[in-house]
Every structure is written in structure tokens, then in C-alpha cells.
Amino acid sequence: MGFLSSILHWLSNFYDEYLGFINFIIRRWEQVLEYTANHFSLVLTVMFFSLILWISVGLLISRYEKLANTAFGIGNILFVIPSISLFGIFITIPMLGLGRTSAALALILYAMMPMVRNVYRGIKSVEWPIIEAGRGMGMSPRQILFQIQIPMAWPIIFAGIRVTVVMITGIATVATFIGERNLGRFIHHGIARESADMIIAGAVLVSVIAILLDYILGKIEDKITSPGLRKEQEQS
Amino acid sequence: MIVLDKVDKIFPGTTVPAVKQVSFQVDEGNICVFVGPSGCGKTTILRIINRLIEPTSGDIYIKGKKVSDKEVNPDHLRREIGYVIQQIGLLPHRTVEQNVALVPRLLKWPEERIKPRVKELLDMVGLDSNEVIHKYPFQLSGGMMQRVGVARALAADPPIMLMDEPFGAVDPIVRGRLQDEFLRLQKEMKKTICFVTHDINEAIKMGDHIVIMNKGELVQHGTPMEILTEPANDFVKDLIGVDREIKLLDLTRSSEIVDRNKEVLGETREKDCFISALDPVQRALETMMKNDSDIVVVRDGEKEIGTICWGDIKKLINKLSGEA
Q1: Cβ–Cβ of B78/A132 closer than 8 Å?
Q2: A137–B95 CB contact, under 8 Å
Q3: Among the partner residues A137, A143, A231, nearest to B136 by beta-carbon distance
Q4: Closest-CA residue of chain A to B75
Q5: What are the residues facing B7 on neighbouring strands?
Q6: How does residue A221 score in pLDDT terms, banded at 50, 70 and 90?
Q7: Are B308 and B257 in contact (CB under 8 A)?
Q8: pLDDT band for position B270 (50/70/90)?
Q9: Distance between CA atoms of B188 and A232, rounded to whole angstroms?
Q10: Other CB atoms closer than 10 Å to residue B184's CB: what's the count?
Q11: Closest partner residue to B136 among A132, A133, A228, by Cβ?
């Protein structure tokens, strides 16, 4: 009996020590819901515009090689600017200021590097004989792009999108400093108040969103990618 | 049917032409084989015909129409020309059905016409259409992929086919079978075919006409018999190899040397050695060796028309060597 009670004791200590954030979430559920919803909507907004913008840019530079290095250069520079200063720069721009527009724009710029690079790499990964076969059959350059290159590049493009979504979900927490009321606020306030529960609650929820979005994208990827390509990867 | 007139190609950044002043003509319904070592320009010639490569100078005519004109849309031109490439080039993300239907779909055929056409083609090239139609290329063997590649090139029934080492990616046994089947198909289809290979044996077997190339220049062209009996220079002789006489045996029909003296027929028949009058003499030789006999019976259909014995073959070899 002594043994059992010591286990129970240990478990309740463990809960107090490490899982206290669950109590926090239950206690503050309305706020949690609001912040989570804000976080989600910011990430989705950013991804929506990033997909349109950066996939187009990626396709463009795969066509006009000379632009590729310039685009990678810009992407890399943006990527190494610390997020907090990038947000800071945006709020100084008139018309933007504090709030969602600045936050979204900064995050869209962050998405440039992984997305543009992967779209370019994906398109370029299609081997020459296959393109050549398409040309030989009489496909126009546009048909080759949409019927061969893009479908064959999906796995690599998707890898880029998934990395981006996880990354954006994480960096979005920093946007709390420019007025976003999202899960970053728990982390920020938690640090200020030395509340481990608050920090952990924020971090765990952010991770859950990231994992969830990544999982959903994985499912979409499976749907879109031709079995002919998927099997090929599994074999090699 | 296909005419090339003084075609030159100098690739940008090089000074040595890849193709130099090449002119020739391929007649309708013929297989013209381009043969030579790698880098001799044979593939370049093929790709100039369907304008995957634009010639530096010279003209190309197909059915009397100048297709090297700027006004001719190269994409549209290529849809009218079947093309089988070296690395097969099946689209890995598409099923066999989608691969074969590629050109008909580009030509906007109605779907109800495409479906039966794909089945017909797959059966024609010796595949079980029900079994392979929904498979992806990675699920096929090398030989099956080659067949799909040929079916795809034939899909829209183009009068002209360009084939760049179409049987290059399979082992010799499968290659031999594919060659035989293709020749049988060609007897019915009567396509005008340009065929590239580096293998002189394949050239002799497949070609009605052979074009030998070296360093971008046309060295010799003619029928396989002409090439074998009158090689233009040492390069051609080397290319043909030392077994020239044996190759000639492959080009001579048994009916040409059959001994129509029927007296020996009776005893020879016992030995169970038969060949068809249309078979090459080499087949007669093989049959003899297989059956440990020195005489074979030649049949024309069901009718026995005579015999060939070892002496007849030897006489032929002597005659052919004398000619050379």
C-alpha cells in the first residue's frame, strides 16, 4: 500500500509541477479561445498571400534564371533580420502602424525564403529527358509547366509550404509586441510575471496549431501528389 | 517524304559543327536508320527534323512542305510526328493510359475516341491493356516501358515516327523481341521512320536504308546490302566489323540460294529441319547447327520448294566476299 500511495503522491506532484498549464487553460478558456482564434487567422492570412505571391515568384525565377539569385538574395536577407526588428520597422511605416497589417506583411516576407527556394528547386528537379519528352510530343512551354513540372514538383513545393507554416506559426507569437492579441501574449506575460504555467500554455498551444496545420497539409499533399511519384520516393 | 537539304548545325559556344552539310531523303513507308559512334550527330539530325533543335542553315521538307519555316509552329509540327526517346521519357506522375493519350489530348480528340484508341494501341504493342492501363511507369519493367513509349508515339497515328535508340534501355533478349515485333507492326503500318542507333546490327536488321554518320558528316548511305558489300571507307568497314559475311547471310533470303532439286528432299525431311523461304540464310545456318545436320528443307508456306546445304552457304559467302 505504501508503494501505491507513493506513486499517487509522485503523480500529483508531477501534475502540479509540470501540467499546471492545463489548469491555466481551463481557468482562462475564454481568453485562450480568443488568442488561439487570432493566432490561427493571422497564420492563415499570411499563408494565403504567401502561397499566391511566393509560388508565382518561384515559377517566375525558374523561367527567368537570371532573376533567381537576386530573389534568393532578397529572401535570405529578409530571413536573417530578427523578427522583432522587422515588426518594429513595419510599425514605423505610415498607414501601417500597430496591428494586423504590419504583422501579416512582416510574416509574409519571412515566408519568402523557404517558399520561393522550394518552388524553384521543385521545378528544377524535373529531369531533362522528361521535359524533352513533353516537348517532343508537342507540348507548349505552358503545358509543360502546368502538366509536367508543377505536378512533379509538388512533393518539394509542399515540403516548403509545410516548413513555412510551422515557422510562421512560431514567429507569429512575436507579433504580440505590435498589438496582436494572440498566443504570444501568454508567453510574453508569462515571462513578465514569471508564470511557468502561462508560458507553457502559450507554447503548447502554438505547437498544437503548428502540428495540426502541418498534418492537414500532409493530407492535402497526399491527395494532390500523384501516386506515381509517391511510390517512386518510397522505393528509392 | 522527309528531305533534308544541306543542313548545318553549330551549337552556340562551339566552333565545330555538330552536323555538317547533311542532305538525304527518306522515302515513304521506309525505315531509315542513322548509325554512328556517340557524338556523330545522329541524334541531332533526328531532333532537327521535329525542330527540337533549330538548324543553323539548311532546309527540311516533310511531304513537300518546308517545315523549317518560321511560320510553322514547332509544337503543332511535333504533334504530327511520333517521337520515341532514348530514356523512354514516360511521365512518372501519369498512368499508362494518360501517357499514351497525351498527344490525342493535345490534339483535342473527343474522350470517347481516346479510350478505345489507348486500349487498341496497348494491345498492338503486345501489352495486356486491362492489366497495365492504370499502372504508373515505376510499376512496369523496362521492356514494358519501351512498349508504352512506342504506343505513345503511335497514339495519334502520325505518318512519321522518329525513334532515338528506342530499344536501348533493355537487355539484348528483350531488345531482339521488341525489334521483331516492331518490324511486324511496321509491315502493317507502313510508317515513314527515322531510327537512331549506335548498334550496326540493329541498323542492318531494322533499316530499309542506312545513313552512316561520323563527326557530323554523312559518310555513306544506302541499303544494308549496299553498305555491307561496298563500304565506302575504312571507317564504315570498322563499324561493320569483322563478321561482315555473317551479317550478309542475315540479309539474303533463303529463297535466293535454295536448291530446287527435289531428289534429296525425301531423306532430309526425316531430320526435321525446316525453314521458311523468307527466312534469312543465317536462319538456315542456325537450324543446321541446332539439329546437327548439314541440310535443311525450305518451305514456302506449306509447300516444300527445295533444300539448302552447307555447300550452298559456303558458295554464297565466297560470292559475297568476292564482291566486296
Answers
A1: no
A2: no
A3: A231
A4: A138
A5: B22
A6: very high
A7: yes
A8: low
A9: 37
A10: 11
A11: A228
Task: Classify residue A15: in a domain, yes or no.
Answer: no
Can you give the residue range of the structural domain that contains A112?
A: 21-235
Residue A60 lies in a domain: yes
**pLDDT exceeds 50 at position A41:** yes
* Nearest-Cα residue of chain A relative to residue B89: A130
Q: Is A130 on the interface with B (CB under 8 A)?
A: yes
Rounded to a whole number of angstroms, the distance from the CA of B292 to the nearest CA of chain A is 48
Which residue in B93, B95, B103 is closest to A138 by CB distance?
Answer: B103
Enter the pTM of the model: 0.78
Report in angstroms the alpha-carbon separations of B83 from A30, A68, B52, B149, B165: 66, 33, 11, 9, 11
User: Is A94 near chain B, with CB under 8 Å?
Assistant: no
Report CA-CA distances (Å) from A227 to A151, B92, B94, B100, B134: 11, 9, 9, 18, 11
**Residue B246 vs residues A109, A176, A188, B238, B322: alpha-carbon distances, Å:** 72, 86, 88, 15, 14
- Domain count along chain A: 1
- Say whether A130 and B92 touch across the interface (CB within 8 A): yes
Starting at the edge strand found earlier in the chain, the sheet holding B274-276 runs B274-276, B295-300, B303-309
**Is A16 a member of any domain?**
no
CA B94 to chain A, closest CA, distance in angstroms equals 6
Flag whether residue A222 sits within 8 Å of chain B, measured between CB atoms: no
Question: What's the ipTM?
Answer: 0.76
CATH value at residue A230: 1.10.3720.10
Strands, E assignment, A70-215: none
Q: What local confidence, expressed as pLDDT, does residue A236 receive? A: 45
CA distance A200 to A203: 5
Which residue, B96, B151, B143, is CA-closest to A227? B96
**A149 inside domain:** yes
